[in-house]
Amino acid sequence: MAVLTSSSQNLQVHRFPQDHYIDSLRWLPQLSAFHRHIILSAFDSESSTSSLQILNSSNSSSNPPELTFQSSLTTPSRITSLTTSQNPNKPLIAASTFSGSLLLYTADLVNGSLEFVDSVDEKGFHLGRVNGIDVSENGSEFVSVGEDGRINWVSFVGGGLSTRKVFDSNGLVSYGAVKWASPVEFVSGGLGFGLQWWDQRRPGGPVSQFKANWTRGTTSGIVHSIDIHPSRKHTCLAGGSSGTVFAWDLRWQQQPIMLSGVGTSDLPILSPSESDVWEVQYDNYTTSSNYRNVSESRVLPAMICSEDGILAVIEQGEEPVELLAEPCAINSFDIDRQNPSFGVGVHSHLDKVLTASSEAENFGYTAADFVVF
Asked: Where is the composition biased (Low complexity) (predicted)?
């Protein structure tokens, strides 16, 4: 485990070794100005047990920063993806698993504890690994996608879970990621480098599809992560195999806006990674280096983490900025979106990002430490 802090352009790294792997992590909503909470999924390879853990991060002047373990709950299966609602009073935490289930918990941020609420694991929900899950803005609806080619909608109303199958490809398509775009729309991505835009008001299939050949047919690939900017919901950001990151703009659907990728020889800049991009997020608080020419057609800066241990900021038409290079994979990261005054950025104030790092093992989910900066 490590903590990276910065003031102006000076970065400091503080490391805290861990004795278990970390598969994924997320910031929980802020309860006070002095304390933040982190939810992470851990895996103990010796006992083959999985757990969810809450850590407390104190906003103090201490050096190194203080991280305190608060609580842990064992999970019935290893976690593949985490998502959280933004209700600071009692946030919901949804976790998808390798066994095909969805687990729902609530977090008590005053006491730093977790409570199991419900699960969806009945036959037919997902067969095999659930690759992605996301929560809607209202915090009560979830969408999940799996390697079995199924897309499911889950609602948490009145203290119980209800489910509905949105789509089933019958194994012809495998999905790797999903992201809500609006209360009724979401985007999925998976094998074949494709993205699909779904609208629950128009059931039966995606309302728009994007198919691309990132690597000119030289390799196969999959979308691992999707993000949608809150103020530009017509533009979808995707990251996946071969260091590829691209944007799909619904207004110009035929061609991707390429940001990174080892198989794209037409890119004028070097890609920060040559391996799988496990996660991509818009860096909402980075000021564009080309801010004078920012327009609705320009893709805003994004942060990525990769299998070859790179954490970097990429921007359309600019050289990537490498923030961290680890000797192992970085599985996951999260930006603290409730502290814009700290401004996660390229040149200053890199204080509020979480990353989960790993040593390569099964499925790429074997993190031995995680990083906070």
From this structure: 54-68
